[in-house]
Amino acid sequence: MRRSIEGVERHRILLEDGAGIDEDEDGVRRRQSVRGNTVSGNIEQLNTTVVEEGSKSVEELLGEDEE
Q: For the whole prediction, is pTM greater than 0.70?
């Protein structure tokens, strides 16, 4: 996902830096297929971080207490 692209579709864009780009020379760009900044059902993995806990615990919300 890329913040600078609107929508949920995939776009092939030229990138100079970012995740997955390991170029040693200056000015080298690679064409990558990236998704837009909107979360949809096509997203396979979404990494998140809990910044602040609310009235319910994270385990309660995710249903991890039940076994």
A: no
